[in-house]
Design goal:
The chain has a single domain, classed as MetI-like (MetI-like fold). It has twelve helices and no strands. The longest helix is centred in the middle third of the chain and has 37 residues.
């Protein structure tokens, strides 16, 4: 026994645990390691930097987004020759501050996206659950409506509505809802078909629960994660679509500070050394927000989908 103890002693010494991470200190390398392990943190930080100023634009914006001065038109950003600290990102062709209009434009994009996704989500989720749970003729009718919605050319629909009722935020939201509800309905209907055959649904039916109660208390919680992921991924899509409609003149009407309008105002100056910033900075804001929301949606899908989790 003594000989065996002498043989095992070095192995026990080698298994001595390493000092905890707290004893190593916090450095740049450790921060980068944490960022790689949890990529959602830099994504959320980027969203906060871009979106939070929009919520408080009335208090922190340096200028009025609709008023400009012809004496200050096409001023370059502050780091270029001729730029001033009064207009950090420069001004447009009528002297309006680019940074201020980006802040207010973020508000327009976020409000439009939230309202459109909320309405489309409720409508599509309701129709998807009813179609998937009920089946039969109801399912067939809902899915044909989904096919019709997916076949409508969105730009043509927007132009028709603008010609009929005029360009406004309400028109943009209506177009977005008509486009997106079918996405939720199709996804939720497929999820409901899988949930409907589970044993707990059969037990609820045998116990005398109404169809409405089963759909609300048993089906909806099981499809909620998929709805959240789809809504997050749709934010970037909605912002791009709203910006596209505004760029074409079928979205937010001027002089509202919408990102698509800002890009449209500066498109003739994009190759000019004396005005490229008019379209560049709102375009960059669109790209960063859409990229961040897509990455956040991918992260949520990995975290909420049990099939994607690592055991």
């Amino acid at each position: 026994m003594a000989a065996d103890d002498r043989i095992r002693a070095p192995a026990i010494a080698e298994e001595t645990p390493a000092p905890p991470d707290a004893a190593r200190g916090i450095g740049v390398g450790r921060i980068m390691s944490e960022a790689r392990r949890y990529p959602v943190f830099p994504i959320l930080l980027l969203l906060i930097v871009l979106v939070i100023p929009a919520a408080f634009a009335d208090f922190i914006a340096p200028h009025d987004p609709k008023l400009g001065s012809l004496g200050s038109k096409l001023l370059p950003p502050v780091w270029m020759e001729g730029g001033t600290t009064e207009h950090l990102l420069g001004t447009d062709r009528v002297g309006r501050d680019i940074l201020t209009r980006i802040m207010y434009g973020a508000r327009v994009s976020v409000v439009t996206a939230v309202i459109a996704i909320f309405i489309a989500g409720i409508l599509g989720t309701t129709m998807g659950i009813v179609a998937g749970y009920t089946g039969g003729m109801v399912d067939a009718v809902v899915m044909r409506l989904v096919d019709i919605s997916l076949s409508i050319p969105i730009i043509l629909l927007a132009l028709v509505l603008v010609a009929a009722v005029g360009a406004s935020m309400g028109t943009v939201i209506t177009v977005l809802v008509l486009l997106m509800w079918s996405r939720y309905a199709r996804l939720v209907r497929g999820e409901t078909l899988a949930v409907r055959v589970q044993d707990f649904i059969a037990r609820a039916q045998v116990s005398g629960s109404s169809h409405r109660r089963i759909m609300l208390r048993h089906v909806f919680p099981n499809v909620f994660n998929s709805i959240i992921v789809l809504a997050t991924l749709n934010v970037g899509f909605v912002i791009i679509l709203e910006s596209t409609l505004s760029f074409l003149g079928a979205g937010i009407p001027p002089p509202q500070p919408a990102w698509g309008l800002m890009v449209a105002d500066g498109r003739v100056l994009i190759t000019s050394p004396n005005g490229w910033w008019v379209a560049m900075f709102p375009g960059l804001a669109i790209m960063l927000v859409v990229l961040s929301m897509n990455l956040l949606g991918d992260w949520l899908r990995d975290r909420l989908d049990p099939k994607q989790r690592q055991v």
